[in-house]
Structures are given as structure tokens and as C-alpha cells.
Specification:
Strand content: 15-25%
Distance between the termini: 55 Å
Bound molecules: zinc ion
Structural class: alpha/beta
Largest sheet: 9 strands, mixed
Shape: globular
Radius of gyration: 19 Å
CATH topology: Aminopeptidase
Number of helices: 8
Number of domains: 1
CATH superfamily: Zn peptidases
CATH class: Alpha Beta
Length: 300
């Protein structure tokens, strides 16, 4: 009997894992690595930034994300707030769509963070190793379930220095800008401590809201809307220019930004892997995968 139960457990376990939208263990392993001390906070131009890129590119290659040019690297230069020239490197590749090929949805997350200050490493687990690893999970999901649009999978650099990677991408896009129909941006998608994942942008682009409302998966985390009405959402409650979707909005490209509310570890050296609840994070990424699927199906 015990043996039979053991076999049944194995079978059920296998059936559950076969239903996963993406490899959930890999999601957590990736998060642990990208936000480890070894990467020293992933500041632009640092050794840790280079290690992060190497890792992301290995994942892109493994998942057969196609380079847009000769490689995944899209280098750019910008002037920092203190006036020095900085070299950033965005990473981008694409997955070919089926019925709407030639029109692009850009799925993005910034991989940089703020580095080391006063000998403390700012690991930026939620901000934004979480979005970067979600990006890798989505690439896997869309390789198994082909999208209708062509998808650009973009890991931006230098977000923390003023959305520089996204600004460079929009200014000098790898495809014609009028072929980009939407941006789905992820920044801080792990710490949904109140079990709420915010989809920001539908006040400005109400045509996108019904697609996201179609997601009815029984998740512990719920999608809520907001932080996008300038009349109502004042100061730091207004998130329209708070991350890399901002430059897309400025270029009149509709966006949805997925993120969680600020928490006590936001931009602190304590934004660490140990403070993430893996089940909450997986729930958020599953919801984003399903919402992005509805946007891909619904948009023309
Ligand atoms: Zn961020």
C-alpha cells in the first residue's frame, strides 16, 4: 500500500509539474543567483553587471531567443546625473509570432541595480532581479506556447540612473518604432506582501484593461489596477514614469507596468533573496504570463 501511495505521489507530482507555465524551480534558482552577493548589486559598468549579462544571455541562448542583430547586446552611452559619461548595455532578443508577425510587443525588465555603498551590497532581489527572472520565465513560456505577435524580450541596463536603457532603446529601437504595439514592463514583481500585484497603465490606455480582466486564475495574489491617474495619484503614488515603461509612454506606445507597492527593503541593502516568499513570487509571475497572453491575443 505504501508503495502504491509512493507511486501515486510521483505520478501526481509529475502531472502538476507538467502543467507549469514555466519551470518554477528555475525561476527561484535564477532569482537566487542574480541577486547574490557575487554580482555586487549589478551597477552599470561593473564586473557584477557583466556577470549578470553573461547569465541572462546564457538563458536567452538556452531558450532559443533570437538575437535582433549580431548579438543580444545593444550598447549605448549616456551622461549620468553627476555629468560623467557612462556606457550601458541593454540585452534584447525576439521570439517569432504566428498570426501577427511584423508587429511587436516589447516585454521588459531592468537588470541593473545600484551596486555597493559603504561596503554594503545592494542585491536588489525584488528591484529588479525579480523582473529579470520573470522575463526569462516568460521567454520559456512563449517558446512552448508561441505568441501571435513578435515578442521582443528586453533586459534594460541603467534604469536606476534615470531609465537610461529604456530611453536609449526607444530613441534607437532595433525595429521600426511604429511596429511596436505595446510594452509590458516588470519592475519589482516578487514582494506582493499584501497579495496584490499592480497593473499600472489602464487609466491611460483603457483599451488594455478588458484583456487583463480576463485573467481569472485562482491565485493567492490578485491583480489590481491603479497608480496611473495624475489627478488622484500624487507624488510617489504616480507610477507612470517610475520605471522603464515611462519612455514608451512618452513615445505614445501603450504600456502595462506590473509591480508591487514599495516596502521597507526598497532600495535598501536588505532587498535580499531571503525576504522573498517564493510562492508569492511564482504567483505574480504566473499572473503576468497569463495577462501578457491575453494582451497578445487581444491586441491587433
Ligand atoms: Zn526597479
Amino acid at each position: 500500500m505504501r508503495k502504491l501511495i509512493f507511486i501515486l505521489t510521483l505520478l501526481v507530482g509529475h502531472a502538476v509539474s507538467a502543467q507549469q507555465l514555466f519551470d518554477e524551480k528555475a525561476l527561484i534558482d535564477n532569482l537566487k543567483y542574480l541577486s547574490s552577493d557575487a554580482l555586487q548589486g549589478r551597477k552599470p559598468e561593473s564586473k557584477g553587471s557583466e556577470q549578470a549579462r553573461k547569465y541572462i544571455k546564457e538563458q536567452f541562448t538556452r531558450l532559443k531567443v533570437l538575437p535582433l542583430g549580431e548579438s543580444y547586446d545593444l550598447p549605448f552611452e549616456f551622461t549620468s546625473r553627476s555629468g560623467t559619461k557612462v556606457n550601458g548595455i541593454n540585452l534584447a532578443g525576439w521570439i517569432k509570432g504566428t498570426s501577427k508577425s511584423g508587429k511587436y510587443i516589447v516585454i521588459s525588465a531592468h537588470y541593473d541595480h545600484v551596486g555597493v555603498h559603504e561596503e554594503k551590497i545592494y542585491n536588489g532581489t525584488d528591484d529588479n532581479a525579480s523582473g529579470t527572472c520573470a522575463l526569462i520565465a516568460l521567454a520559456e513560456y512563449y517558446q512552448k506556447n508561441k505568441p501571435e505577435h513578435d515578442l521582443i524580450i528586453a533586459a534594460f541596463d541603467a534604469e536606476e540612473m534615470g531609465l537610461q536603457g529604456a530611453k536609449a532603446f526607444v530613441k534607437n529601437p532595433p525595429v521600426a518604432i511604429d511596429k511596436i504595439v505595446a510594452n509590458i514592463n516588470m519592475d519589482m514583481v516578487a514582494r506582493a506582501d499584501a497579495n496584490e500585484l499592480v497593473a499600472c497603465g489602464t487609466f491611460l490606455y483603457p483599451q488594455l484593461k478588458p484583456f487583463i480582466e480576463k485573467v481569472t486564475a485562482p491565485e493567492k495574489v490578485k491583480i489590481v489596477f491603479g497608480h496611473d491617474d495624475a489627478e488622484k495619484d500624487k507624488g510617489s503614488d504616480y507610477w507612470v514614469f517610475s520605471s522603464d515603461h515611462g519612455p514608451f509612454h512618452s513615445a505614445k506606445i501603450p504600456f502595462i507596468y506590473f509591480g508591487v507597492a514599495d516596502h521597507k527593503d526598497y532600495h535598501q541593502p536588505t532587498d535580499d533573496f531571503e525576504n522573498v516568499n517564493p510562492e508569492t513570487y511564482k504567483s505574480c509571475v504566473r499572473l503576468i504570463a497569463l495577462a501578457s497572453r491575453e494582451l497578445d491575443k487581444g491586441l491587433n
